[in-house]
Design brief:
74% of the residues lie in helices and 0% in strands. It is mainly α and 183 residues long. The longest helix is centred in the N-terminal third of the chain and has 24 residues, at 49-72. The chain is globular. The termini are far apart.
């Protein structure tokens, strides 16, 4: 395996490990073990744990943005909105680690900010801005529509993280395309 392929394996493993354990509780040893490499090799690919976490966070945001872009391709307005909503629900249903990683990212950035480390969240904020801009463009460059779409997405993240099942009354205010699929 090339160094680039191994780096890719580390990012995928980091998403899984950080999603499940959070930034503070996840050891680089667990990531190395998941990939099947030694910790020293891990640190040849990434300078430190924070770099691994940020690479995983950036990848998660990139893949979410790509899901939205693919879903909205060739569509406008309501069609784009509903296609993106359905695609996002499929993403978090098919790969729950993506949702868990997002939630861990927000907690880690908030903790870093509270501790005075403002640089930690810079790349995450940049990735989120790219996500917003992509959604905004897909929805006709209407910042209000993009904000509403992403606000519903964050609420969907919260409700899904809290374990509200599909069909629960809490989902009744969502447009149908944004509701989780029933089993």
């Amino acid at each position: 395996m090339s160094a680039d392929e191994r780096r890719e394996s580390v990012i995928r493993a980091a998403i899984t490990e950080f999603a499940r354990g959070g930034y503070s509780a996840t050891s680089t040893e667990a990531i190395a073990k998941r990939v099947g490499v030694s910790q020293p090799y891990l640190f040849r690919l990434f300078p430190n744990k924070q770099a691994m976490f940020l690479a995983a966070a950036e990848r998660c945001l990139l893949e979410t943005r790509q899901v939205f872009e693919k879903a909205a391709d060739g569509l406008e307005g309501e069609e784009a909105l509903h296609s993106m909503a359905r695609s996002y629900q499929r993403l978090i249903a098919d790969d729950p680690d993506k949702l868990l990683m997002q939630m861990q990212v927000y907690a880690a950035v908030a903790a870093a900010e509270a501790a005075g480390d403002h640089a930690f969240g810079e790349s995450v904020r940049a990735g989120w801005l790219e996500l917003f801009d992509s959604v905004n463009l897909a929805l006709g460059a209407d910042a209000g529509d993009a904000t509403t779409f992403l606000a519903y997405g964050m609420l969907a993240n919260t409700l899904t993280s809290l374990g509200f099942p599909a069909g629960h009354r809490i989902w009744s205010g969502f447009y149908a395309s944004a509701r989780p699929a029933t089993a």
